[in-house]
User: What shape does this take?
Amino acid sequence: MPSPEPQIRALSDPRVARITHYFTHYNEPLLHELMQAPEDRSGITYSLYSDVTSPDHTLKLVDPALATLPPWDGGLRWYRVRNRRLAGPLFWQQGTLRLAWARGHDVLIVTGSYYCLTNWLLAPLARLRRKRLIWWTIGQVVGEPSRLQRWMKRRFLRLADAVLFYGHRERAQAIADGMDPDSLYVVYNSMPLPECLDPPPPAVTAELRAGLFSDPSLPTLIHSGRLRSERRVDLVLKCARALSDEGFPVNVILIGQGPANASLETLTQELRLCGRVHMAGACYDAERLAQLFHASDLCVAPGGIGLLCIQAMAHGVPCITHDDHYGLHAGGHGGQGPEHEAIVPGRTGMLFPNGDFRGLVRCVRQWFATAPPKDAVSTECRRLIRMYYSPRNQADVIDAAVLGIPATHVVQLQDFGHVVDPASTPE
Assistant: This one.
């Protein structure tokens, strides 16, 4: 006999605890969006719980000093819980179980890692206390390395009343596994967006290009991110060389610093691309970043694209990356983050077969040959980011999940004309 569904009491002015491991700096605009007065958030009051350190010291986190300021003064309603590392990937969050037991919150939104042992206890406690439990997770059951882990992940997802996924393919997989579509939301992702998403006048862009390249009239490719070998930025340069050999020369802008920096400089010389490649180094100045993106025509990410997709398209730049969502192709360049679903082929970018270098070259050439006018593409990219991959839209989806509004009633990327085919999700 199936177990009864948990009876969650009707919520009026719900109080929500958002529990996670830590908050990275790109989450900050969303956190401030959630801190709006309850009357502006359907009566919902959000409080944040996390640690303030990460085992990855290269990650830039939200400044803990914001917890000392009230929300109306730019601060966050934020309290510390501590991550305690155990064996391997397992860890314990000290201080979260009391949030499930105490009366201070009606809804728990918890980062859905089944490696966090406290999460397995939060679920029955929340059910006992009749609190709504929402996992927020990347999903990717297919990408788990073993059958046991895939089975555990499926069981884990079913412990919650609702799930927030970053992308549609994970939601499609959960539906295929028999979960209720109305409890499965796509929250997308977001990052700090430029204050003005509109491009500068063409004369300003032309002047910038003239200062970067020996021939500023050529189409310009761009890539931004930490320069590591697994990102395969070398293929951007090799693609530029191949295009030039085919009589279609291009310029390249590389933003970022990292272990592959020296080898990429050497490769630029070996491929005879001097004067056509600008290595901008690490750049954290929003105005300079905007200038470089506006000076480019196409973002190319041969490896996973991740948040670069949002960053580029927010500046009106379409994206090309590979099509292997789960990284299952032998000899390919890893999997994709869910952000690559923002690429609507022919409208905001294109996809090439993972591991197929000639496919990458053909894809770039095809984009410049067949894409709509640049102004139309730029407008389309910025519109998609505003509609879905923005802090405001994320907050609205979270509100809907908290209030129990059916997920099928929430505007999703399919409404933009982009359909993620569940059949493309491997078993």
Summary: The first helix runs from residue 28 to 34. Residues 318 and 395 are 25 Å apart (CA to CA). Confidence is low (pLDDT under 50) at residues 1-10, 421-427.
